[in-house]
Amino acid sequence: MTNLHAAATPRDTIVDLDDGLIMRWSTHADAENVGDLVAETFTWMSFSGLQDGVIPGPNLMFRAAAKRLLSGKNAVMTDRDYALVEDTKREVGKNPIVACVSIHRVRAYYGCVDLFFGKPELIATDPDYRNKGLIRKLLFEMIHPESDARGDSLQFIPGIPHFYRQFGYEYALVSFTSGKIENIQSIPALAEGKTTEPFLLRKATPEDIPYLISMSTKERVSPYTQLGLYYSPEYWQYTVKDIFEIADPEHPGTRSTQIVVDAATGKDVGFTIVSYPFGLKLEALVLDENVIIQEALYPILRQIVAMEKTRLEEKKAKVTEEEANKINTSSFYMILQLHPQHPAAVLLGSKMVPTFTGPGFRLCTRINDYPKFIRTVTPELEKRLARSSMAGTTGRLRLDFYRKVEGNKAKGLEIIFEKGKILEAREWTNPGYEKTAEEYLAWKAENNIPVVYGATFAPLTFNNLLTGERSLEELIWSYGETAVKNEASKLLLNSLFPKISQHMDNFYW
């Protein structure tokens, strides 16, 4: 365990929920039962297709994932970071763990600021125990307090559409996709007369971890994004080394890291990350600045396709004939989970088709403490302001969220500026017209009337502006409650919170 995942709240607390139900944190010994619960819960989530009239068995891929989370070697959590509900009175032979939520922690960036994001994940409830509020209790009494206490700036989660809104989450992060190579036959073959590729792929080993760390800076991986997740030392230690020591042979890890080698010199010149449980995806492609991508791209893609064919052939050999017939090893697609500005995406151009009608896969986001978030990212906000037409601003920005809701603890926010610097960010409540008039008269009497900028936002929708997932103009069009006090307020908000791109590769557990 690293300091990254050190617990901030006690792990020996047991909460009595009555009728034999208790709420507690996990231990390594819970791995089998949690794995079984997750497998049963995700029975109907099949990546190979469901057959009409056929009830599938437990989801063994998700069972293996849950056990990896509780291995004690995971990159995102320890074996004490699953919050559980246990039925101490359940009959012998039935799984005593009836609900669970894990809390992950990952390194992230917001412009020039490094911070941490929390991620509730692999949530499950036994069907016999649903609609009893167990997930709500796990989130609000264990997961959120732990994540907040250790200093996570926000929590995010993919998963059931709309479901997490009831727990104070708003869609405010996006995993962008540049497109899909629908027909892999469109990838040009090796030129006639050539027998070897100019760039070769080899599987990354633990000895490559220092190289991978040095090559996976934000500037190399995704210079087009201003908010996202790092490929951190913990990520490389887990995905390149530890996962192979704890993997279920039938359901191993979900991704592969390959080192790109210049065949002529034998020198390592980059890396690729490929994942496959949700369809073959190129998650990252990073090359040395001296490599010409026009020369390297197709050799790399051809080898990724060849490896996928081999993987599928091996998979066919392990399943029933009926299941094997569903696996097509000669024709499949490849998704580029790369930013649209990535040189690979630009070069492929018309060979790709859109994967979504929208920007990509949306993630639910909880930012419970806006003042704390503003204080954390102040260096980036001041940097943005200094480059804008509102440089040197002095005054107060007051944002009214109408009411206090789960997912944010304040009705409003006030940010105080002096000569372009943020002096303070604090909770604020709109006092109403009468009190506002009294405040103005008091300022006037002291001959010290500040400039007050202002705007209103529907509850939780300020999340979208903070993360840059939407622009102020888009929010104004989307929500009738969203409005700005004047043109200067609009300029200030646009300067502080422009629409930005994000890098959210997070399915590697």
UniProtKB/TrEMBL annotation:
InterPro entries: Acyl_CoA_acyltransferase (IPR016181)
Highest taxon of source: Eukaryota
SUPFAM superfamilies in UniProt: Acyl-CoA N-acyltransferases (Nat)
Pfam family, one: Acetyltransf_9
Protein name per the record: Uncharacterized protein
